[in-house]
C-alpha cells in the first residue's frame, strides 16, 4: 500500500490533466468558540483544563482538611470514651463526636465526588488536545462492533477500527448515538438533511462545556448492538395479587414477633413465608419480563436519562436541535423524558437489588419486593413505553450531531462542502484534498475533479466542472500515494454525505455511494485465491452500480491483481466500461502501465494522472504530488536494488 504522508513540502501547482474545479463559495466562518472566534481549539481545551485542574486542587485541599477534621473528632471521641470509662463523664457525651463524625463523613463523600469529577474533566480535556494533535485517545470508542460485513468499503477506508474515522469522530455514549452516527457514515443522506446537519454542527461547534458534560455522564457502557428495546412490555400484577402480597408480608412480620417476643407458635410465620414464596413462584415470569424490559434499552437507562437531560436543557441554537427538544415535550404525564427514564432506572436498580443482593434477600422474600418492583416497571411501560424508542432515537441523533460539531470545532482548517444534486450530474470536485486522519502538518494535498453527465437543459451549474472525466487512472510507483489518494477521496465523500466538514480547501459533490475494492486478501482456510476475491468484490461493486440509488463512486486499487497482464487488461476494460455505462464514476490505480491505455480508448470519459518518485544518492523519496499523464517509469527494480535483491548494473 502507498502512503501519502511525508515531510511538508510547498503547495502543489494546479494539475493540467484534470479540469480545474470551479470557484466555490468562501469557507464558512470558524465556529464560535469560548474566548473569541479566532481561538485555537487546543488553546480552548488547555484553558478548560487549567480551570478544572484548579477545581481539583481546591477540592483536594478541602479533602485534606476534612480528613484532618475527622481525625480530630475521632481523637475527641476516644478522650470522651476514656472519661466515660473512668466515670468522669456520662455516655451522652459520646453523642456529640458521633454526630460530628457522621456529618464530616457525608461532607467528605461529596467533596471526594466533586474532586473525582474535576479530575475526570482534566483527563477529558487532555484527550481532546491529544486528538487535535492527531494522536489516538486511549480506550476511545473505535466502533469495531459497528463494522457491517456487507459493506467492505468501510474496512477499506478505515471507517471503523483502532485507527479509524469513527474513533476520531464520535463522542456518542449511548448505543443509539453510536448506531446513528455509524448509519450516517455508511449511507449518504439527502442534500436537505445534510445541510440540516451542517447547520447544527456549526451552531454546536463552540459548545465545549456541553460535550464535556456528555463525556462525564455517569451510566452503564453501551449495550451490544442488536439488543433493542423490548417490543412486548411486561404486564402489571392484578390488584388482588398485590393485596395478597401485602397481607402475607404483614402476617410474616406479625408471626416473627409472635414467635420471638410472645414465645408463640412459629406456624404463622411459616404459613406466611410459604404463601409468599408460592405467590412469587407463580408470578416469576412477570418479574423476569420486567427485568428484561429494563435491560434492553440500548445504552443504559442512567446514561440515557443523562443525555435526555442535556438535550432538554440545551438552548436550541440550530433548528435541528430545537426540533429534537420539542419532540420530547410530553404534557400528558407532567414528567420530562429524562425524569421518566431516570425513574425507570431507579426502579430497575431496586428490582436488581431485590433479586440478587444477599443483604436484602430476607426482606425481599418477606415483603415480595420483586413483585412490586416488577409491577412498577409494568406501569411505567404502560405510561411511557410507547415513546421510549422515540426518546432513545432523539438522544442518539443529538449525540451524533454533537459528534459532527466536535469534529468541526477541532478541525477549523476543514471546510463545509457544497452538497447538492441541483446540477443534474454526479460529481466530486475538490481542491486541496487531503486525508482527514493524517497529521495535517504532514498531509500532502491534491486537486481531484470527477464528473458524470450534464444537466438535461444544457445549462452549466456553478458547481459543475466542465471537461472533468468520470474516471481517473492513477499510475505510480510503490509508496507514492495512490492508495492514500483513493482513501482521501472515499473518506471525504463519506464525511460529506454524513454532514461533516472535510479535509479540503473546497469540495463540491452530489450524493453518491462510495464503493471500493482495496484490501483484498486470499484465504487458505476458506479456499479463496487473491484473484477470486478481487473478482467477487468487483462483482459487488457492479451490482451496486446497477441498483437504485445515488451514483456509485468507485475506488479500485490495483484492479484485478493476481492474474496476468493480458487478462487483466481485458477484464479491467470490461469492468470500467460497465461501471461508467451505469452512471458510476471514480478512480482506478495500477502498476500495470498497459492499463493506462484505457484512457485513450474511453476518450473524454477518462484521464491519466500519476505520482512520481525521486532517486538521489541511493535514497528514494516521494513528494506525493498528483501530476497529469502516465508515470514515466517504475521504481520496482530500483527498490529491489536498494535492498540487495537485484544486483546493481555495472
From TrEMBL:
Q: Where is the composition biased (Low complexity)?
A: 33-47
Record flagged with keyword Membrane = yes
Its source organism is Alienimonas californiensis
Q: Which residues form a coiled coil?
A: none
Question: Could you tell me which residue ranges the DNA mismatch repair proteins mutS family domain spans?
Answer: 469-649
Q: Where are the transmembrane segments?
A: 68-86, 92-111, 243-261
A biological process term (GO) from this entry:
mismatch repair
Residue ranges, compositional bias (Pro residues): 23-32
Q: What is this protein called?
A: DNA mismatch repair protein MutS
Please give an example of a GO cellular component term from this record. cytosol
* Residue span of region Disordered: 1-54
A UniProt-annotated Pfam family:
MutS_V
Instruction: Tell me the GO molecular function terms.
Output: ATP binding; ATP-dependent DNA damage sensor activity; mismatched DNA binding
The gene from which this protein is expressed is: mutS_1
Q: What are the alphabetically sorted keywords of the record?
A: ATP-binding, DNA-binding, Membrane, Nucleotide-binding, Transmembrane, Transmembrane helix
| InterPro entries, sorted | DNA_mismatch_repair_MutS_C, MutS, P-loop_NTPase
Amino acid at each position: 500500500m502507498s502512503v501519502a504522508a511525508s515531510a511538508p513540502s510547498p503547495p502543489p501547482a494546479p494539475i493540467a490533466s484534470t479540469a480545474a474545479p470551479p470557484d466555490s463559495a468562501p469557507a464558512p466562518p470558524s465556529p464560535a468558540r469560548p474566548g473569541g472566534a479566532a481561538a485555537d481549539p487546543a488553546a480552548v481545551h488547555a484553558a478548560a483544563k487549567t480551570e478544572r485542574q484548579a477545581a481539583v486542587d481546591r477540592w483536594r485541599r478541602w479533602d485534606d482538611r476534612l480528613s484532618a477534621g475527622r481525625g480530630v473528632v475521632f481523637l475527641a471521641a476516644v478522650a470522651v470514651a476514656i472519661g466515660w470509662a473512668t466515670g468522669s463523664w456520662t455516655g451522652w457525651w459520646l453523642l456529640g463526636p458521633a454526630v460530628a463524625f457522621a456529618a464530616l463523613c457525608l461532607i467528605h463523600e461529596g467533596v471526594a465526588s466533586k474532586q473525582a469529577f474535576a479530575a475526570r474533566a482534566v483527563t477529558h480535556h487532555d484527550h481532546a488536545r491529544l486528538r487535535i494533535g492527531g494522536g489516538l485517545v486511549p480506550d476511545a470508542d473505535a466502533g469495531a462492533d459497528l463494522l457491517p460485513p456487507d459493506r467492505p468499503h468501510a474496512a477499506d477506508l478505515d471507517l471503523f477500527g483502532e485507527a479509524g474515522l469513527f474513533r476520531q469522530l464520535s463522542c456518542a455514549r449511548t448505543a443509539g448515538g453510536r448506531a446513528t452516527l455509524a448509519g450516517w457514515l455508511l449511507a449518504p443522506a439527502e442534500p436537505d438533511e445534510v445541510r440540516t446537519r451542517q447547520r447544527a454542527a456549526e451552531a454546536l461547534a463552540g459548545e465545549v462545556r456541553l460535550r464535556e458534560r456528555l463525556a462525564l455522564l455517569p451510566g452503564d457502557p453501551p449495550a451490544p448492538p442488536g439488543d433493542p428495546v423490548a417490543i412486548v412490555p411486561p404486564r402489571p400484577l392484578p390488584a388482588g395479587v398485590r393485596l395478597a402480597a401485602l397481607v402475607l408480608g404483614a402476617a410474616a412480620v406479625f408471626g416473627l414477633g409472635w414467635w420471638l417476643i410472645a414465645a408463640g407458635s412459629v406456624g404463622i410465620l411459616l404459613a406466611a413465608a410459604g404463601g409468599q414464596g408460592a405467590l412469587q413462584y407463580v408470578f416469576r415470569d412477570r418479574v423476569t419480563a420486567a427485568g428484561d424490559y429494563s435491560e434492553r434499552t440500548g445504552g443504559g437507562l442512567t446514561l440515557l436519562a443523562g443525555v435526555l437531560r442535556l438535550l432538554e436543557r440545551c438552548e436550541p441554537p440550530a433548528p435541528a436541535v430545537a426540533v429534537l427538544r420539542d419532540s420530547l415535550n410530553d404534557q400528558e404525564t407532567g414528567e420530562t423524558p429524562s425524569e421518566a427514564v431516570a425513574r425507570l432506572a431507579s426502579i430497575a436498580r431496586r428490582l436488581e437489588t431485590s433479586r440478587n443482593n444477599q443483604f436484602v434477600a430476607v426482606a425481599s422474600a418477606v415483603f415480595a419486593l420483586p413483585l412490586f418492583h416488577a409491577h412498577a416497571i409494568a406501569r411505567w411501560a404502560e405510561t411511557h413505553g410507547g415513546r421510549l424508542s422515540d426518546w432513545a432515537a432523539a438522544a442518539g441523533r443529538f449525540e451524533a450531531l454533537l459528534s459532527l460539531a466536535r469534529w468541526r470545532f477541532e478541525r477549523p482548517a476543514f471546510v463545509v462542502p457544497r452538497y447538492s444534486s441541483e446540477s443534474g450530474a454526479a460529481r466530486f470536485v475538490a481542491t486541496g484534498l487531503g486525508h482527514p486522519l493524517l497529521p495535517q502538518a504532514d498531509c500532502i494535498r491534491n486537486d481531484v475533479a470527477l464528473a458524470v453527465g450534464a444537466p438535461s437543459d444544457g445549462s452549466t451549474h456553478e458547481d459543475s466542472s466542465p471537461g472533468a472525466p468520470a474516471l481517473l487512472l492513477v499510475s505510480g510507483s510503490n509508496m507514492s500515494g495512490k492508495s492514500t489518494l483513493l482513501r482521501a477521496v472515499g473518506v471525504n465523500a463519506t464525511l460529506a454525505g454524513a454532514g461533516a466538514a472535510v479535509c479540503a480547501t473546497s469540495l463540491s459533490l452530489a450524493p453518491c455511494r462510495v464503493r471500493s475494492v482495496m484490501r483484498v486478501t486470499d484465504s487458505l482456510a476458506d479456499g479463496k485465491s487473491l484473484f477470486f476475491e478481487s473478482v467477487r468484490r468487483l462483482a459487488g461493486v457492479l451490482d451496486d452500480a446497477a441498483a437504485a440509488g445515488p451514483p456509485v463512486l468507485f475506488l479500485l486499487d490495483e484492479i484485478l491483481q493476481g492474474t496476468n497482464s493480458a487478462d487483466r487488461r481485458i477484464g479491467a476494460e470490461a469492468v470500467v466500461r460497465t461501471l461508467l455505462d451505469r452512471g458510476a464514476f471514480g478512480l482506478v490505480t495500477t502498476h500495470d502501465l498497459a492499463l493506462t491505455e484505457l484512457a485513450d480508448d474511453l476518450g473524454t470519459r477518462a484521464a491519466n494522472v500519476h505520482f512520481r518518485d525521486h532517486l538521489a544518492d541511493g535514497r528514494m523519496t516521494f513528494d506525493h504530488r498528483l501530476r497529469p499523464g502516465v508515470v514515466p517509469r517504475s521504481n520496482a527494480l530500483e527498490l529491489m536494488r536498494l535492498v540487495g535483491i537485484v544486483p546493481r548494473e555495472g
